Amino acid sequence: MAHPQEAAASSGPHPAPIPADSTGSAPDTRGPRLASVVVFVHDHDASADFYGELLKMEVRVRTTTAALLVGHNGFQVYLRAVGSKAAHPVGHVGAQYVIWTADGPDDFQRCERVLRARSDHVNTRHGDGFTVIEGRDPSGLPVLVAYPGPDEVARLEIISRIYV
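RE: above sequence
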């Protein structure tokens, strides 16, 4: 019979413990935060207009094939044109959706108006204490906006959209 230490050692690699900081106290439990999203689109100009209006972002850089939008909090959206025939297959490895959080109930209603005016597919789902509206960007990619955000209402379920 193996000793507990041997069994643990044979079960695969284990991460090293996180060292204490220079003061000897436990490390800060905060981690990295999302700073940017890269979205491949059919037409970066149409997408820049759409995301700029929906997310209240400013185009800071625009080239012949890409655009960089920046929000008031410094968050960045890079849009890269890949042509009108490029596909976005669901169920493949990689990020599939980005879910944005509205700044408040008025902002959520504004996002809903923008999606209804600029998108051919809009629906609303209600979760446990939050609401998600979904539309499509100019390339047909799903765009989801939630309110309230996960920092205000904990997510205790996986929304059904994740399984579609």
